[in-house]
Amino acid sequence: MAGRCLLVMVVGMTNRLSRWMLLIAPLLVSCAAPTVTKESGMQAPDFVRGDVRETEHRQGDDLLSAGLGLEGLAGAPAPIAHPLQPTPAELRRRAIQASWKGIADLGPLGGYGRVYGGVPDVPGREYQAFAWIPDAHAPHRVLLQVPDNFDRSRRCLVVTASSGSRGIYGAIALAGAWGLPRGCAVAYTDKGTSGGYFDLADNSGVALDGTRAKRGSAMLEFEPVADTAHTGVAVKHAHSGDNPEADWGRHVLQAARFGLAMLDRAFPDQAPFTAQNTRIIATGLSNGGGAVLQAAGLDDDRLFAGVVALEPNVRVPEQGRALFDYATDASIWLPCALADARFDKTPMARTPEGEVPPAWAQRCHQLHERELVSGTRVAAQAAQAYEHLRAGGWTDQAMATAASTTSLDLWRAITAAYASAYMRRGPDDMPCGFRYGGVGAKGAAAAVDPALRASWWADASGIPPGNGVGLFGGTDHSPDPTLPGALCLRALWEDTDASTQPLRDGVAATTVKAPRPSLPLWIVHGASDGLLPTAFTSEPYVAWLRSNGGHPLYWKVPYAQHFDAFLAIPGFGEQHVPLLPYGYAALDRLWAHIYAGAPWPAIVPTPSPTPRGALPLARFRLDLPPAWTQAPR
């Protein structure tokens, strides 16, 4: 969801967070042989406009890590020789690296590549294009990776969507890492999000190859309505005018069809590739998980052979809570609730000196001033804020883990962007006075840094702040400056005024439809997810499917939370386990069902892991099931 893309939000953090941000800085950003590019004249699907860009990735470059390997992915940002003019190959390498770091725990204690997962060299080809949903204002990207070891005897296509609001490689650590080494092709979509920001002052956006281009000089990923009076930054997810979340399922289905068409192009002697002769496995994580579940509900042509969704941002009719609902609520109440003594030992809920952060104590005071809590001391106010959230469905586990989301100011960033998307607003009329623009070293508005702008497509998260773009507005000069914006965004949800109805309509448009009951479907979610709590997302979805004759499998994994990449933070990773290995295990079981004839189970016992602790992750702590397949990874 909104979740993993937001690791890059470092602008405007308080001093007390600087130590944590320095520790996870390698997670917040994203050498190989030159890429050979060619434009093919073969026919593309009718939803593709412009060229299909075909590139080859071999001999020091590859599909899975752009030649960096596991060590390189975990290391310093891949270099750019001329920062003002990065090459498409440099941008691709940085984009792949940034997506890996935003999703997986690549730290020395995390166990990736040793306990689970891996990053083998996978040479092959890529096909990338801009695809359009009917009546859309902006395209979404589609990409197919075809490994040289594509298994023609067991035709397999994995289709996925980026996590959070990331770019086209935003699910590579899940779908690519699982599918490519076993000979599957992998089709991706950025689902109408990504870091293809448009700089209105520079009048430039992002071309198909990731480089910057002026308006009118090339087909761009995102091009807002021309407005010479505005000089800020326009972001596709927030400002396209399309409410992309409502179409995420359609984006995924188009990616699947693009994948089949490009397999025809890659192997003309084996064409046609269809859902009848090529198994299509849909998988995604966070917002990508929600996207594949949306697609499953729209899959009238029965493209999918099975679905595995991790920690999905999913909403069903009349059950659970919409992301905008609980996120705006959390934005107001969690800073105070986390001041409660029950969270004294919670990572990121206290200053390095063990005190309640002053800003959180101030939030309690401001809630009292507005007569939202009645206690006269912080302890009593915090207890009341805690009870407010408990009454709304928050668990202690979810609140404790949400200390990270709250500390990093992610609630404000998420809700400001999503409000603009739901209401189909542009860069100069975002709700509640918010706007995006260049930011200086001390957080003040400034001209956009040209070097940062040049690599936005590779490095940016898809939702500012970060990478030289700040979130402005929605504040005052009080001791709690962000509260007015939070209250304003909450009012958009709670008001019944006609002027706010577009927001509620936008949220309603994201509700999923039920997939066919016979579709093998598995939901994997961390019990401690503090960004997309299971009580609001996966649990209502699973219950809804079962009440409608479906038979989804569901793992609610103890000690797993939303951000595997956060497990590198000292004090945080010790209390949790990563979620990715359970997603890989579910995909392995689906593979065994599809290709080895293993029966699809009615139930699979949920693993009982134990927290990683201070030592490197050991496999026994994950309590993974025995291997269901011997296919290499």
Automatic annotation (TrEMBL):
InterPro entries: AB_hydrolase_fold, OHBut_olig_hydro_put. The lineage of its organism: Bacteria, Pseudomonadati, Pseudomonadota, Gammaproteobacteria, Lysobacterales. Residues 1-32 form the signal peptide. It comes from Dyella kyungheensis. PROSITE patterns: PROKAR_LIPOPROTEIN. Pfam families: 3HBOH. Keywords: Hydrolase, Signal. This is Hydrogenase.
